[in-house]
Amino acid sequence: MLIRRASDIASSEITPQGVYVSRRDFIAGAAAVGGSLLAAAAVPAFAGTKLNTVKGPFGTDEKLTPLKDITNYNNFYEYGTDKYSPAAKAGALRTRPWTVKVEGHCKKPKTYDVDEIMRMATLEERVYRLRCVEGWSMVIPWTGFPLKVLIDRAEPTSKAKYVEFTTLLDPGQMPNQRSGVLEWPYVEGLRMDEALHPLAILCFGLYGEVLPNQNGAPIRIIAPWKYGFKSIKSLVKIRFVETQPQTAWMKAAPNEYGFYSNVNPTVDHPRWSQAKERRIGEFFKRSTLMFNGYAEQVQGLYSGMDLRKNF
Known about the structure:
- By secondary structure, this protein is of the alpha+beta class.
- The protein is built from 8 helices and 14 strands.
- Strand 5 (126-133) and strand 6 (136-146) form a beta hairpin.
- The radius of gyration is 18 Å and the shape is globular.
């Protein structure tokens, strides 16, 4: 079995030699060019240094996807529907100042500065070396901490059955929001027990650095047992709600994209099989694993559910 609980992740595994031969200058005033990792305005508190990462509770011994592929082959519909537009167009995104509003059915609603959220992780911060699937797959060393840490601070009430997430709405910075390809802003959601699972991550870095804009800067969700579109990017609002949120893709194509969207090789997309996936960097397809290989960790969340109906 490829998935293991990591007893250790060596620094050489997390940041392979040569990945940062040409380190970006994150100091204020650095020029933002098309395809660059960060815009000039995006200078976070951790700029210029690696994030304070330690080994994580979940890991895989699979080979990491190269940084150049992770940052140049993306789905981020706010910048275009092809895989290369995000890297070319997201450099202009201003990630400071940036706030995340936490509201809804909770006792302690609050608007957080993103750097405050990042500092919240001082003792909780982890590197998660995880597979992510969107029809293709990658193995990415994310940096972040369990979403549960922030949820617990908000103290949700008994009415909070789901957590709704919302992306920034700013067509000036995200030009494809002027299109009608989706209903904007982008909205996603998790059931409360999913959001509280330790594999649901508030993520703000990869390969030991702050997130590149095209990968969802400055903060995003990672739910690696689900298809990639569930892992919402450039997060600005977390809302505790009583009823299941209507997500962006459910509104766009409800017969194709259900609320749960768990990686499930036995349930085909209406237009293609999901039994196989293509790992970036590999020529041949490989078999898709149930829950993307995290069945041992998450299958209990869906005990008794019909996963063909609740796709």
